[in-house]
Amino acid sequence: MAPSHPGFIFATGIESSIPTIEGGRVRMDEMEKCGHYRHWRRDFDLVQEIGIRFLRYGPPLHTTLVGAGRYDWSFADETFPELRRRGLVAIVDLCHFGLPDFLGDFQNPDFPALFADYARAFALRYPWIQLYTPVNEMSICALFSSLYGWWNEQQRSDRAFVTALKHLVKANLLAMRAILEIRPDALFIQSESTEYFHATTPEAIGPAEMMKARRFLSLDLNYGRRVDSTMYEYLMDNGMQREEYHFFLDNNLKHRCIMGNDYYQTNEHLVEASGETTESGEIFGYAVITHQYYNRYLLPVMHTETNLCQGPMGDEAVKWLRKEWANVLRVRNNGVPLVGFTWYSLTDQVDWDTALRENKGTVNALGLADLDRNIRPVGHAYRDLIRDWTEVLPTQSMCLQVPLALDKDYPDYSAPIPPWRSDAGDASGATRNIE
């Protein structure tokens, strides 16, 4: 039996990416592709069957935020109270790689303030929620959308990248402040990709060093850390204004944060002298790279994403789970306050073999369960891992306890969601519902 106040966060997530491709004409909605809208009750059953207490989960932004100050809570009003009833704790993911059509893309300067209004409205409507990831993988979102040209604005320039990044991080910071107005004890778990770039030749050292510095930009800005001189020049040369830079220095909420590190086999890269990169596979691994990030920010850490395809032998994912778990234990035993681990996602995903660049409907066997909702071998292995380690970890190595007020213990647990009226709430329309 898991303790009522867990000392370690074992989590999974519902894949909720929503980028657009093909010039905005195609929405890659993973919750639709993976069947969650149809099978959400069964998905919640699976979470409980595997023994997981924490679920990275969020309402689909593109259908919930339907206009400035206008929200459609219909799907969220079904799912979030049900999570609470079951005693499952949501880590709420509010923006996952895409925006509603009316906002366009991440070049839009209106995005941060409107997103903060949305975050405030969510916190008002579901006040028992304490854990949030306001904007998922800010760095990856900016890279794929505005430097690689794959998603959303599909641009390929350093100026577009800096613009997207500053809007994403500002949105994250404003959303955190808005949520704290409603829930002063809210905690924020940043989910950010942990990267490393290996130079293939001496001539490649320069480009590799530039990329290694750029990988920290989103968290530097989010945590109010002064960037190094090379990155300062890079930001200024590509459109960031001094007052914008000082906004990030002056508005960080680092003391409310847990640094979420995502690590996959694709997170390490080989860099050529030309600046071209290819995947290197695992060279350093999660533990080595996580220490680099921890030493930079000195925050509690959570391993917020990993997975591997089950593969032809049927045990590849199980072996990767064991390897990542060994890395988690190594990081903790080295003195880092690592407070959680996540296999992402609950079910298989669709079209991530092309990073959602092609709408082919290819199923990727990455989940704890397949799309027929049958638990995969890695799901059974994760269940056993949780069972064996849940009560041991709080007494081992690092004794940090995340100050959680579990959702089921929030005041007025039995009360229904209040029937918000369109004329109720603050001047921003935070409690407004659409017809």
Automatic annotation (TrEMBL):
Q: Which Pfam families does the record match to this protein?
A: Glyco_hydro_1 (PF00232)
Residue ranges annotated as transmembrane are none
Xref: InterPro entries:
GH, Glyco_hydro_1, Glycosyl_Hydrolase_39
- SUPFAM superfamilies (UniProt xref): (Trans)glycosidases (SSF51445)
Which named protein is this?
Family 1 glycosylhydrolase
Q: Which organism is it from?
A: Massilia agri
Q: What is the lineage of its organism?
A: Bacteria, Pseudomonadati, Pseudomonadota, Betaproteobacteria, Burkholderiales
